[in-house]
Q: What sequence folds into this?
């Protein structure tokens, strides 16, 4: 593995023989990542739990992975000095194999990166927010002691979050397949003019329009890109597929919510522009004019660790700083 300027190469070490192991995926550019990692390492050391950390130098070398950090403050040797048995992994589909949980230190982008590692092997994910909004995070960094105590004691619940399975067809043949936790974004590849699209639900055409693109989202993703594009907020325990056109030139181009059993398809008109399909902003597929994108409910959910039992409404108000002054509640 070659060095990145200013970033020392780190030897990739295989995981040790532990009955329990935690994988940590961290945004190494955050100010408080070192102290948070130190708490995690100490807790794991005291409980005899093996610790894996992802080598972000390796992650940054993959052209399809956009996670690039300007610094690399996570020195595995420093964590070993605390007493933790630390292994460095390459950030691939095998990184989470055999792990009990994946701990995410960062914002929503880091969480989506960690989900790529956890989803193939069905390992649950827990987000610790080191970013700004951090809507996907379960807790803030100042609660890391409490969170780690619960993880060590297995004092948490796991809920399933719906995903999407995406197939791209050209001339009737499947050229690519992938998945998404938040959304699949279909955009104008050239950024010139408008993208001519036809939407279809359960084999029937619904609307044709020109637009910057269209989003097909899960309830989890409804508070992300789809929300910014004018879509509704959906509670995460709801199972449905959301379609949100982006800057459409049409009389009927409003967001639509379909059944989770629906087959949603978006056709890129043959006479128009090429498209770019982006899943969670991480996995990209070029689709030529005339291509077809099919979206269904994912066969495999993302397992989500819940530390607290706070209602989703409370999280919505807290994360978006919504005004609720004057609320009186139900009178008894």
A:
């Amino acid at each position: 593995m070659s060095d990145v300027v200013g970033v020392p190469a780190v030897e990739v070490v295989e995981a040790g023989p532990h009955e329990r192991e935690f994988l940590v995926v961290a945004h190494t550019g955050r100010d408080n990542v070192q102290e948070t990692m130190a708490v995690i390492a100490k807790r794991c050391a005291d409980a005899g739990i093996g610790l894996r950390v992802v080598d972000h130098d390796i992650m940054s070398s993959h052209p399809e992975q956009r996670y690039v950090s300007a610094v690399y403050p996570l020195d595995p040797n420093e964590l070993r000095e605390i007493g933790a048995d630390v292994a460095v992994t390459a950030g691939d589909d095998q990184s989470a194999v055999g792990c009990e949980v994946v701990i995410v230190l960062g914002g929503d982008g880091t969480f989506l990166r960690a989900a790529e590692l956890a989803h193939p092997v069905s390992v649950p994910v827990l987000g610790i927010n080191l970013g700004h909004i951090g809507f996907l995070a379960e807790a803030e960094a100042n609660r890391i002691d409490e969170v780690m105590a619960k993880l060590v004691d297995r004092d948490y619940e796991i809920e399933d979050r719906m995903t999407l399975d995406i197939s791209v067809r050209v001339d009737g043949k499947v050229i690519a397949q992938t998945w998404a936790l938040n959304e699949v974004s279909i955009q104008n590849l050239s950024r010139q003019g408008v993208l001519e699209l036809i939407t279809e639900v359960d084999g029937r055409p619904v609307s044709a329009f020109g637009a910057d693109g269209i989003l097909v989202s899960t309830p989890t993703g409804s508070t992300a890109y789809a929300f910014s594009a004018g879509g509704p907020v959906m509670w995460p325990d709801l199972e449905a597929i959301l379609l949100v056109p982006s800057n459409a030139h049409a009389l009927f181009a409003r967001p639509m919510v379909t059944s989770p059993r629906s087959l949603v398809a978006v056709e890129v008109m043959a006479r128009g522009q090429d498209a770019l399909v982006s899943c969670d902003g991480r996995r990209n597929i070029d689709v030529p004019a005339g291509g077809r994108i099919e979206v269904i409910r994912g066969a495999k959910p993302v397992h989500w660790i819940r530390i607290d039992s706070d209602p989703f409404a409370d999280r919505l108000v807290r994360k978006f700083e919504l005004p609720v002054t004057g609320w009186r509640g139900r009178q008894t």
Observations:
- The first helix runs from residue 33 to 47.
- DSSP finds seven helices and 20 strands in the chain.
